[in-house]
Specification:
The complex is a heterodimer.
Chain A lengths: L4 H22 L4 H15 L3 H9 L2 H13 L4 H19 L3 H9 L2 H8 L5 H15 L12 H11 L4 H14 L3 H9 L2 H8 L4 H15 L3 H10 L1 H10 L5 H17 L7 H14 L5 H14 L3 H9 L2 H9 L6 H14 L4 H9 L2 H8 L5 H14 L3 H5 L6 H10 L5 H14 L8 H5 L2 H8 L5 H15 L4 H11 L1 H8 L4 H14 L4 H4 L4 H15 L4 H15 L3 H17 L4 H6 L4 H14 L7 H10 L2 H6 L7 H21 L1
Chain B lengths: L2 H16 L3 E2 L2 H10 L4 H15 L2 H11 L7 H15 L3 H11 L2 H4 L2 H17 L3 H18 L1 H11 L18 H18 L7 H17 L2 E2 L17
Parallel strand pairs in B: 1-2
Helix pairs in contact in B: 3-4, 5-6, 5-11, 8-9, 8-10, 8-11, 9-10
The chains are: A mainly alpha, B mainly alpha.
Chain lengths: 666, 242
Amino acid sequence: MPTPASPSASASSSHRRASSDLMVRIGSADSEIKLRALRELKNQIIGNRTKKLFFLKLGAVPAVSCALAEAQAQAQAQAQADLLVQSAAALGSFACGFDAGVRAVLDSGAFANLVALLSFPDDKVVDAGARSLRMIYQSKLAPKYDFLQEENMEFLLSLLNSENETVTGLGASIIIHSCETVVEQKALCHAGVLKKLTSLLEGSPSQKDASLESLATIIKKNPEAASKFVSESRRALSSVTDLSKDRNPRTRLLACMCLIVIRNTSPCYLQDIGIKTKLVYLLLELLDDPGQVGEEASFAFSSLLAQKEDLQKLAFEAKAIDKLHNHLQKHLLQPRRYQGILLALAELCSKLESCRSRFLSLEVLNLVTDALTHEVADVRTAACICLRSVSRSIKSLSAGHFMKEMIVIPLVRLLHDPSTSVQVAALGAVSNIVVDFTTAKSTFLQCGGLKLLVQLSKSMDPILRLNALWGLRNLMFLADNTCKEGIFLELTAPSLSSLICDPEPFVQEQALALVRNLVDGCLDSIEYVFAEDGIILDAIGRQLQSASKAEIGIQGMYVLSNIASGNEFHKEAVMHQLLLQVNNGTQAFILKFLQSNDSQLRTAAIWTIINLTFPSSPGASSRVVKLRNAGIVSQIKTMVNDPCVDVKLRVRTALGQFMTIGDSST
Amino acid sequence: MSLFWIVIRQLAEIEAMATSKKVITKEEWEKKLNDVKIRKEDMNKLVMNFLVTEGYVDAAEKFRLESGTEPDIDLATITDRMAVKKAVQSGNVEDAIEKVNDLNPEILDTNPQLFFHLQQQRLIELIRNGKVEEALEFAQEELAPRGEENQSFLEELEKTVALLAFEDVSNCPVGELLDISQRLKTASEVNAAILTSQSHEKDPKLPSLLKMLIWAQNQLDEKAAYPRINDLSTAKLEDPAV
């Protein structure tokens, strides 16, 4: 706003003088002056973040905290009550939605004094104390309340049983803030808190809200608590369902969230189509709320849809994509709302092709692409997650909907975003998009995407390494030889072999999967694993010998299998890896894999043997002899009736080849 | 009468018979109404709810004494609420803010939009009183930071500051901000927020009941002719139009 500079400077200096004068008056010995100063401070900071910060820096919090402590020792009742109310209110305001303020209030030692206010006879004092404590408990910084101590549980129950609404609200806030573990949830159930909260569902509007949120906290991911809540009183569940029709939108939202928590915790409840449909429509309607309720509704909607195809289908039928699209088109979206809508779209498009094609036909993609460059990291992350979800569509990938500069360039830029969560989400989207079946993957290479992926594959953060390799693996998928060569030259053999030996098993698996795609296809591409004296192949052999999980074995065996499909030199190199341990006297990994419980691993292992013993290749018969000597042939013979059809079929192919070779050699 | 008109009238009668609506006479209707028992206490509660929500504290007190109906809220809080409302309506916004904060400090701390509108009203009053310097300083010190936090506040702020740019504010595009209706709008926003904070519905129940009555009559109109209430202030049953 263009305002002249000089008056503002003088204004703020006069403002500063007045403020330090106010600080002096708060410290005054005259309780009349002190009271007026406290009230003035309170009126200045309420609703005003800038002022809160300003007075915080002036040291106002310790001063008010000191006034509170002094007032508790004050003899004259009315003067005492006024001072207590004003100082508690000021502290509460510092703590309201302002973490730095919460920290300052806690550091000033005011917490215990505020708790002490709860046992004052004057209702106004109790109210002021409870309200300020509730503000503190709404912050993550509040001290954790230990429910497992008996006297604490009793105190909590006394709060919940109070006649004073602010005090019951405080009790609920404590539960919402501090109940995290199953043990704590159980302790609360055991103490009869569920029952108390159920009765508060019939209370005043604020008690309803507080109770719904606390119930959700206690029931979340705890099937025992869910069934206790549902079975304890026949009215309990229907009270919550009724509240989803309340007049107050916030109450409706909290009731929906409570129902979603119950359903996600124990899928046996709330299964009928009626309630499912109702939840979908309710939440879509709540999205229209212009305030916080509308923001939170999108997150609740996501948790309703998560992993549930039936609900995603209902949402699709309720035109959820169109509605979310309309919201996305609005001007000046608040970041949290923006994030929530993108995540809801991501959830909707995570499984159903019908949702994805509606998404694309409405051209929501353009709006999501805009969000990739949003200034808030959470919005960028959500946009990436949404892109990843939509790009699961093989149909649209084949149509080349995503390999466009408009999408790829901002996405690649996010690969070096300062926030790791954005990077990981961007890698997730990149991984899907680079699969691209049609056009050359050149768009991505041209804008420097490859270099960044390779850089990230060397990151210190294992999650980044994992996702970067995932991207490279998909980029390698069905790529032409020029593209493969480009990737390989950028990645280099030494770093690829060190990624195969990464300390994290999930990184090892991705690295092997990447090599598997690298050596898939023509003979030339097999040569890559022989670069630099075959360090990659050696790394694979070592990793397979010590493989900590089946997935590593599977990817590794498919690499060997792909190599074994090559020429004689390639086949012999694989033989060398397979029999290395036999010569050392330890059990060969191939035998271990053939005996594995994992049918996919058995399949991968048997494929390698099939490729090694293909009868038309010149060295086949000598390889069969070696395999027989190592006990591998006899192992395969025991597998003719393998429970897995796929394995059984391959075993028969292998045995057939052994026979053919045996016949011709004799 | 020409044959033509006779035919027309017959046609009309046939049509009326085809869609023949049920006719309910006034006697029948009143008999049915008498069968519906509405407890006097419920009616009284409805009246009390209206008086309390609208802030008629004296009337509520008298009604309490006369009917023995207990209000669902402490009558003293109505006085406080009305004082806040009145302060905004008469342009003493700062006074109103202090009063709200005394009532419940949480209201303005957790309701940024309301807080902004009150501060905006303060700015409007400064401009109305020709305190240009003070208005600019206030806009910069108090309102500009809120605009940074929220884009839509910034737009409203820009509109308000635009008042300073016009010589004749009564005739400028943003002149409506100086209108008395702007004060009333802000006042009713504060009133609603206070009611909500007191766990009280922000609208009285009576008007929505009347709305339901109108809706129900419209529904019934399609199916029957009955003694309708056309004048809500007298609630007189009209004779069914046959």
